[in-house]
UniProtKB/TrEMBL annotation, chain A:
Pfam families reported for this sequence: ABC_tran, oligo_HPY
UniProt-listed CDD domains: ABC_NikE_OppD_transporters (cd03257)
Keyword ATP-binding: yes
SMART domains: AAA
The protein's name in its UniProt record: Oligopeptide transport system ATP-binding protein
Keyword Nucleotide-binding (UniProt): yes
Signal peptide: none
ABC transporter domain sequence ranges: 30-269
From TrEMBL, chain B:
Domain ABC transporter: 26-274
SUPFAM superfamilies documented for this protein: P-loop containing nucleoside triphosphate hydrolases
Chain spans, region Disordered: 1-20
Cellular compartments annotated: Cell membrane
Annotated protein name in UniProt: Peptide/nickel transport system ATP-binding protein
Major localisation: membrane
CDD domains referenced in this protein's UniProt entry, alphabetically: ABC_NikE_OppD_transporters
Listed PROSITE patterns: ABC_TRANSPORTER_1 (PS00211), ABC_TRANSPORTER_2 (PS50893)
Keywords from the UniProt entry: ATP-binding, Cell membrane, Membrane, Nucleotide-binding, Transport
């Protein structure tokens, strides 16, 4: 295939910044009254700065309402940012018109969460996966049908499924169809919004493995949006923890899971149920109380202070900046957890090993 | 009579180790739905029991029959659509075939259910308080004022802040976690002796999930109820359950105490579930070990062992797995499985092939 030479070129550039978000903001206006005057804004995403390197998987995690899905939609320019910039492969795409954006959609694609809602029930699988070729007017070597059948095989479906409709497939198979559509134009970046959370455990593992294989084969870069911290650890190279529209901590996988610095990350990790009964009693848990505050009126200072057990007066007034506390490990906290040694044991590993 | 039929009739209900008659006993339950395409055998010969003060975890993927089982216990299948046979004994009374009026007297009072989706399980038109009051006043002859006070107390118990004013809120004014708490309050309004929680935390964030699991645990300790928790998340049952039943294609494939299931599982499907999950408490593995294929259609359940098309060990006993349905039997110490593999094979495969990869 013609991508071979490109793949070689991409390999040499692995590790360089491919997607850069700087101070990215999205505020959804709240309008009231006859004149639809703006009375407030949902600060869904409020000042995100991060980079995604070529060939890596960056995961965005957090509770519902933290802005992770909005971030994914901003990166793919499905919605217009309120502020900040996004650059893709060195090119500023922040305010490109939809016409100017269209050629770039070959490079950045999205996998959606709901395998039932994201496929048109009245189109055949062939039409769904072939749509990107038609929309982008891409000429394929042996015609669109052949290209679609190759894609079906690539994601572990049978080429005979070409003329079937989405309702004839199970959730896992539908998610594979969505992935095939995403891959059609050989994108550089795929933003995957909860790609496996709607699937059964055994199917989830199949899709995770498939996405890994495809990443290796096509040098894909993933931005993974997820809430399951176990899956995130398995798939990611780096992880960004979000809370109320801000990044609380961003680090490579190993240091985030082994030495979480932000209290919120520690709390999230300690809340994950672990399938091991021997840890039931010796696990130190941090239980956050209450719910995530409203992003319409986020708390002053550090947004996490209302639920944080380490919060002091400083946290209520001054917002902690996201700073690098050790190599490649940034956290936004005035009182980060012990940066050399973890003070608590969120998974209970030490207790059961003893 | 063939051996096949023998094994169907001879299934023994697994009993928890403690003495006395179990509070809930399900015997040879079958729930079939006739459809135009054929009979959907959602639950097929299922037996289990739960004692007071104990928690049974039912684990399985979608379509394994776990929710259908809970709806049959609660008597919530629409009359005429489901064919139910077998016995469901709640404190000795058989619920199968009981008049709907009599089941209604038990529902809410002696058994209650927490549903997965708290938004669709609550009526959007009535306040949260009035929905709790309704259930309480049906079973208790009290004035509205007393019932309202009870509702406020319950909301307080389940951790709703400012319950006196929130009791008059509508469900849409509550967040997901608060709705789930309100539903738990509703389920607990008459101190039920049996509480069924069907995926109580699936729709919730992990921090809220931890709060809800703590709440269920505390309330159970206080009321000494029997609890059935239905989930697809092995982590959740590891936190809560005393005993675990793994279901596949409408049948139980493994049943034992929770530590036993996690430390020495014996059924290939349970191995598959454990291998599919990435785990925070272990070294990160390079590859997950998924179960191949997809769950079977419940209209055409495979001959023999229903798991045989997906099982890596199906061919090791000749064609036994493809022709004979394995009997669900005690293999020692109350550990029940339905599998044709020999005891030594199971131990060897678990110790040498499965456990090292987890």
């Amino acid at each position: 295939m013609s991508t071979k030479t490109e793949t070689g070129a991409a390999n040499r550039r692995l590790g360089e910044d491919l997607l850069v978000a700087t101070d990215l903001q999205k505020h959804f206006p709240i309008r009231r009254g006859l004149l639809q005057r703006q009375v407030g804004a949902v600060q869904a995403v409020d000042g995100l700065t991060f980079t995604v390197k070529r060939g890596e998987t960056l995961s965005l995690v957090g509770e519902s309402g933290c802005g992770k899905t909005t971030t994914g939609r901003l990166l793919t320019r499905l919605i217009e940012p309120t502020g900040g910039t996004i650059t893709l492969d060195g090119r500023d795409i922040t305010h490109l018109s939809s016409g100017a954006m269209r050629p770039l959609r070959r490079d950045i694609q999205m996998i959606f969460q709901d395998p039932y809602g994201s496929l048109n029930p009245r189109h055949t699988v062939g039409a769904i996966i072939g749509a990107p070729f038609r929309l982008q007017k891409v000429k394929t070597e042996h015609g669109v049908k052949r290209a679609v059948q190759d894609l079906l095989e690539l994601v572990g479906l049978s080429p005979e499924h070409y003329n079937r409709y989405p309702h004839e497939f199970s959730g896992g198979q539908r998610q594979r169809i969505g992935i095939a559509r995403t891959l059609a134009l050989r994108p550089k970046v795929i933003v995957a919004d909860e790609p496996v959370s709607a699937l059964d455990v055994s199917i989830q593992a199949q899709v995770v493995n498939l996405m890994e294989d495809l990443q290796n084969e096509f040098d894909l870069t993933y931005v993974m949006i997820a809430h399951d911290l176990s899956v995130v650890r398995h798939v990611s190279d780096r992880v960004a923890v979000m809370y109320l529209g801000k990044i609380m901590e961003i680090a490579d996988r190993t240091s985030l899971y082994e030495r979480p610095m932000h209290p919120y990350t520690v709390a999230l990790l300690s809340a994950v149920p672990i399938p091991d009964t021997s840890r039931r009693d010796n696990r130190e848990r941090i239980r956050l109380t209450g719910d995530v505050p409203s992003p319409i009126n986020p708390p002053s200072g550090c947004r996490f202070h209302t639920r944080c057990w380490k919060a002091q007066d400083l946290c209520k007034t001054t917002e902690p900046p996201l700073v690098e506390l050790s190599a490649g490990h940034q956290a936004a906290c005035h009182f980060p957890e012990n940066t050399t040694k973890l003070t608590i044991d969120p998974t209970g590993a030490a207790g059961s090993a003893a | 009579m063939t051996q096949h039929e023998d094994s169907l009739g001879g299934a023994t209900p697994p009993r928890p180790a403690s003495s006395g008659a179990p509070f809930l006993q399900v015997r040879e339950l079958r729930v079939h739905f006739p459809t135009d395409d054929g009979v959907v055998k959602s639950v097929d010969d299922l037996s289990f029991s739960v004692d007071r003060g104990k928690t049974l975890g039912i684990v399985g993927e979608s379509g394994s029959g776990k929710s259908v089982t809970s709806l049959s216990i609660m008597g919530l299948h629409k009359a005429g659509t489901a064919r139910i046979s077998g016995e469901i004994l709640l404190d000795g009374q058989n619920l199968v075939g009981m008049a709907p009026d009599r089941v209604r007297q038990l529902r809410g009072k002696r058994m209650a259910m927490i549903f997965q989706d708290p938004l669709s399980a609550m009526h959007p038109f009535y306040t949260v308080g009035s929905q709790i009051v309704e259930a309480y006043r049906i079973h208790n002859k009290v004035t509205k004022a007393v019932a309202r006070k009870h509702a406020v107390d319950l909301l307080d118990r389940v951790g709703i802040p400012n319950p006196k004013s929130r009791v008059d809120d509508y469900p849409h004014q509550f967040s997901g976690g608060m709705r789930q708490r309100a539903m738990i309050a509703m389920a607990l309004s008459c101190d039920p002796e049996l509480l069924i929680a069907d995926e109580p935390t699936t729709a919730l964030d992990v921090t809220v999930q931890a709060q809800i699991l703590d709440l269920i645990r505390d309330l159970q300790a206080e009321f000494n109820s029997a609890v059935i928790i239905i989930t697809h998340d092995l982590g959740v049952v590891a936190e809560l359950a005393d005993d675990i039943m793994v279901m596949y294609a409408g049948r139980a494939v493994e049943y034992s105490s929770a530590p036993d299931i996690f430390n020495s599982p014996q059924h290939p499907y349970t191995w598959g579930l454990l291998g599919s999950m990435p785990r925070l408490d272990r070294e990160r593995t390079e590859r997950l070990q998924p179960i191949k294929g997809t769950p079977p259609s419940l209209i055409n359940v495979p001959e023999g062992c229903p798991f045989n098309p997906r099982c890596a060990y199906a061919g090791t006993n000749g064609d036994l797995s493809f022709t004979l349905r394995p009997e669900f039997r005690d293999v020692g110490g109350g550990h029940h499985i339905a599998c044709h593999l020999g005891a030594e094979d199971r131990l060897r495969i678990w110790e040498t092939e499965i456990r090292p990869k987890l």
